[in-house]
Amino acid sequence: MHTKNLAGNIILTKTRIKERKRSLSRLPMKRDIYDRHGEEGLKAHEGGQHQGNPFDIFSNFFGGGFAARDQVRRGPTSLTEFEVELADMYKGGSIDFMIKKRILCDHCRGSGAASDGDIHTCSGCGGSGVKVVKQQIFPGMFAQSQVTCNDCGGRGKTIHRKCPHCQGNKVVDHTAHYTLEITPGMPEGHEVVFEGEGDESPDWEAGDVILRVRSRRNKGGWRRKESSLYWRETIGVDEALLGFDRNLTHLDGHIVRLVRKGVTQPGFVQTVEGEGMPLPENENLHGDLFIEYNVVLPLDISPQTRRKLTEAFRPSEAGHDEL
Fold it and tell me: What is the residue range of the signal peptide feature (predicted)?
């Protein structure tokens, strides 16, 4: 029972297709729409959508569809982690650097051919870049689909003699020179974009080169956290006990005076206001500088120094030492 119904449906479908094709035989434009997009495509065209692009309704089914053909392809964007000295991020500056990339061959202008006369229309697709493939669905019923031409790779052109400079690759290796401008107080991880400086290709518009700027971590040196700076200062036992007055050379060379009266405990952190990083929104304003003190003990002391320390800290034992 079901087999008879299926056969009847197939015969009915074939009949409708034949009738539809006969009605289209004198209308090449409609026939082309029917061959490419079937019954629904023809209905959409006849329903008035031909006033604009008759294929816009299929754009969602073809990855952007026919409207996407007019859009310019963008090449890949490269992202590079770029380390600079913290001093450059403190005071600002310019850093020259180089990037290896690919650019269009200046001899063939990206065609890959030795001359314009070596570029010919592809005989496999007639220059369209696609081939129409017919596939049988049922006996006597076929469906048509478009595939990229394998003779020209979808470009519609073939090259008979390759460019001797790029060997037909259309692009060549190139080392480009750039300058990175660092503003005072630039945030960690700030991204600087060089628009259109990515790899070139005749198939796309060059993408961007992005540098993600970070300060280089130097062991035992200056450290940064947002607008704050950190420094570890080493002092002796005498300075830890009696106090001190010393100078610290800042990242840009100016002097910061460090003064302590009395005892400084190991690990004590002193805050120096206004000596941190410049603020990105106003480089005339600064964060704070935090100084952590590290006390170094001597490896050995002389008998005279030992006696004086004993008199100072253990007066009750000083007389026994003399005896």
Answer: none
| Helix, strand, coil share (%) of the chain residues, nearest 5 | 30, 35, 35
SS3 256: strand
For 127-149, how does the pLDDT look when each residue is reduced to its tens digit (9 = 90+)?
888 888 877 777 877 788 888 88
User: What span, in angstroms and rounded, lies between the C-alpha atoms of 113 and 160?
Assistant: 8
Give yes or no for a contact between 262 and 243, defined as CB atoms under 8 angstroms apart. Answer: yes
* Pair 94, 179: CB distance under 8 Å: yes
CA distance 114 to 120: 12
53 touches 66 (CB < 8 A): yes
Residue 259's DSSP bridge partners are 245
Domains belonging to the chain, first-starting first, are: 2-70 (no CATH), 73-106+171-216 (2.60.260.20), 116-160 (no CATH), 223-311 (2.60.260.20)
| pLDDT for residue 69 | 45
User: Does the predicted model carry a pTM greater than 0.70?
Assistant: no
Query: What are the tens digits of pLDDT across the range 61-84?
Result: 444 444 444 467 888 888 989 999
The whole-angstrom separation of Cα 239 and Cα 296 is 10
Contacts of 281 (CB under 8 A, 6+ apart): none
Question: Which residues, in sequence order, are CB contacts of 276 under 8 Å at separation 6+?
Answer: 227, 228, 229, 286, 287, 288, 289
